[in-house]
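All the exercises in this workshop are built on plain-text protein records. A record pairs a protein's sequence with a compact description of its fold. Backbone structure tokens are a discrete shorthand for how the chain folds in space. Once this layout is familiar, the rest of the handout is easier to follow. As an example, a complete record with its sequence and its structure tokens follows.
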Amino acid sequence: MIEVKGITKSYGNKKSEFQVLKGISLTIEDGDFAVILGASGSGKSTFLNIISGLERPDGGKVMYDETDITTLSDKDLTEFRKATIGFIFQQYYLLPNMNIDKNVKMGADLAGNKNYRAVIQAVGLEEKLHKYPGELSGGEQQRVSVARALAKQPKVLFLDEPTGALDEQTGRQVLDYICRLQKEYGFTMLMVTHNINIAEMANTVIKMNSGNISEVYTNETQKTAYEIGW
């Protein structure tokens, strides 16, 4: 379980300080699929970065069970992220001089996962192991980034606008892969998006506005990637 307690975050100096997060508290249950919605500037990406340990808050706590990651040293926080967390971003961040197999193996090596090719097969790229990122479509590259993140065998997967650079057909395909893998492996998943339709796929929906959480609700039924609007 992830518990966020009174998180605050500001940028700038005292003369021109901008408060991005204004004392946010939230609980995410193990195995949940939560979507964070909000307009640009609402603080949703900053919130995701803090929950995942990429940034430190100015105040408050982020608890993973009994561990408050805001109190960890930089070294221990890096080890925690390495052991616990996976990331998928809008940009693919693949290494262009490495083929698909080696890009995914990088993630697998962090967890000592020698069976990482099962994840490559799960995202439908087993026939392109020896292709390089530049030889793949955008959707295929995003599926490689999904495989790399899951090859780490994370307990929590964070996604920041994972379909933002994809067309509708490819976006639906990538979302379908991610959600099927989440159900199969049982990890917790938090996704930031501005696409309100994607929220219909989630169990928990968190709406943000001006640095605060304005609403949290649960979907009684979850739609698939092919049932939602776009």
